[in-house]
């Protein structure tokens, strides 16, 4: 059971990723982004999730440099965007990300979306980066079961992780079971559905029962499902609140109640139809 903010999930290649990280999607104000990352790291977070598309990799690098925490303690994730997929263009995109972050390596590099006819070539580039040691682990984001099956049918390396939209209204049970079967970790982006389900009466009532916020109830549910989470916030109080998940445990019956809220409802894009 996850018991501490810096507890880590061991990926199938032996690399360990913190169960809880800070997502920096839509942090467009540079100063605000640097401040959020610094607050998270000062609070005890050791995982930061960014992407080329977010245009704030430089902010992550700046915050990491300014705090002076040993690099090996911090886990940095980035992703190659759709328009840069393909073998050579992915290698160029990675170099750009590395320069923006001002790092010698990236801990985890992901394919951001499964772009048809491109993601296999993109994956070959990620395999090369992994062999060269400039990436410690490689994975995918927003891949459905059929994408994973197709990718693994010709790949040399299996993704260590699949980062997907996942929350109580979109529990992704078949995908999670497939990933477990193949030793692929599951990571939830939008773990609280961008705040859209915080008014759910069942979750709100559960929050009262445990003396926790609805967001904390949802995040704890993820952890008890062995899901890695990257909640996003620019507000110091929320960043700290999202880390206070280790002084309580949901009863098994309550975990099942949250499971029952699933509606297969997406708030983000459908991977099968986005940016084809």
UniProtKB/TrEMBL annotation:
PROSITE patterns membership: ALDOKETO_REDUCTASE_1, ALDOKETO_REDUCTASE_2, ALDOKETO_REDUCTASE_3
Positions of the catalytic residues: 54
InterPro entries, A to Z: AKR (IPR020471), Aldo/ket_reductase_CS (IPR018170), NAD(P)_OxRdtase_dom_sf (IPR036812), NADP_OxRdtase_dom (IPR023210)
Residue intervals of the NADP-dependent oxidoreductase domain: 29-262
Site-annotated residues for Lowers pKa of active site Tyr: 79
GO molecular function: oxidoreductase activity, acting on the CH-OH group of donors, NAD or NADP as acceptor
Keywords for this protein: NADP, Oxidoreductase
Protein origin, superkingdom: Bacteria
One Pfam family, short name: Aldo_ket_red
Residues that hold substrate according to the record: 112
Family: Belongs to the aldo/keto reductase family.
Protein name: Diketogulonate reductase-like aldo/keto reductase
Source organism of this protein record: Oikeobacillus pervagus
């Amino acid at each position: 059971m996850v018991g501490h903010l810096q507890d880590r999930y061991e990926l199938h290649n032996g690399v360990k990723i913190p169960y809880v990280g800070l997502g920096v999607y839509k942090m467009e104000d540079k100063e605000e982004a640097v401040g959020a990352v610094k607050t998270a790291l000062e609070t005890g977070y050791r995982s930061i999730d960014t992407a080329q598309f977010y245009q704030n990799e430089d902010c992550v690098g700046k915050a990491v440099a300014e705090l002076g925490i040993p690099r090996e303690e911090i886990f940095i994730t980035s992703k190659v965007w759709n328009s840069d997929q393909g073998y050579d263009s992915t290698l160029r995109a990675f170099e750009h990300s590395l320069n923006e972050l001002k790092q010698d390596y990236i801990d985890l590099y992901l394919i951001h979306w499964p772009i048809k006819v491109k993601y296999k070539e993109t994956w070959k580039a990620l395999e090369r980066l992994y062999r060269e040691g400039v990436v410690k682990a490689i994975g995918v984001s927003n891949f459905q079961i059929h994408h994973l099956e197709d990718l693994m049918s010709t790949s040399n390396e299996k993704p260590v992780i699949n980062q997907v939209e996942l929350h109580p209204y979109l529990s992704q049970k078949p995908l999670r079971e497939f990933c477990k079967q193949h030793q692929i970790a599951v990571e939830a982006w939008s773990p609280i559905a961008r705040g859209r389900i915080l008014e759910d009466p069942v979750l709100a009532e559960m929050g009262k029962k445990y003396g926790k916020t609805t967001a904390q109830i949802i995040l704890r549910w993820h952890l008890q499902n062995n899901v890695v989470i990257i909640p996003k916030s620019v507000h110091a109080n929320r960043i700290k609140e999202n880390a206070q998940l280790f002084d309580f445990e949901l009863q098994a019956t309550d975990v099942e109640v949250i499971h029952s809220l699933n509606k297969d409802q997406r708030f983000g894009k459908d991977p099968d139809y986005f940016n084809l």
